[in-house]
Amino acid sequence: LVDHFRFCVGLVADRVERARQQKEEVPVRDEELVSLYEIYLCLLLRGPSLLHLQESDPGDSRLIHFLLKDLPRLKWLERERSRSASFRLTEESRQLSAALRRRGLDAMKPVITGICFCHFASVSTSRDAASRGPTGVALLCVPEEETMASWTVEEGAPDESLLDSGDGGRLVTRKEEDPFSPNQRSREADETRNASWLEGVSGNVTPLVPFGESRRRIAHLKKAGWVVLPLFVTQWRQLRTDSERDEFLRSLTNLS
Fold first, then answer.
1. CB-hemisphere CA count at 13 Å for 10?
2. Mean pLDDT highest for which of 62-66, 201-205, 250-254?
């Protein structure tokens, strides 16, 4: 896998270099360049170390430089900036910004990290190289087209394949809580209370899980040490008043 990735990155890098030398248009689509950067992130964050490109290797070092300093990351940044600009124009952005301000969470702003565009995020100010604390808190809006109910049709039971610790909606960063720890029991109590409140809003408590790109972004952020708060747009749009939005946000962030 990694050798094939090396071959693809090297091939694209050579094409880009030749096009520049000959003053021609780069013969690679923007989507392909973005895909290279995203595959690099996936291997780096979720693959075993043997699948990582090695900076100590001269060949890999050239490929890493191309991925991080050249067109793959530049085109990726263009796309994420476009997504950020588009989100800021939405009604959800306006409503969430106001709700966060009312909760005293003014520090949470739209942010483009090295992993993805976060609809709202704040970086931990006390984090240092030796810290085991979270990188920060990221609130990601999961669009309706990337949302599914986690109940199976046949048995009415949660589909565990969708609720794995890496990609599910729980706030897990570095390791799972001990199921008998006070923190875990408190978290379960919070989730029960939140589900009961959401039942009054949505009419049911069917758990929602992200899939597609939202699923991948959440998993990558968690691997990088972020606390991730998935906000399902399909639920948010059911809220009609500021008080409902404030209560929903309080439940989501487990604030008292």
1. 12
2. 62-66
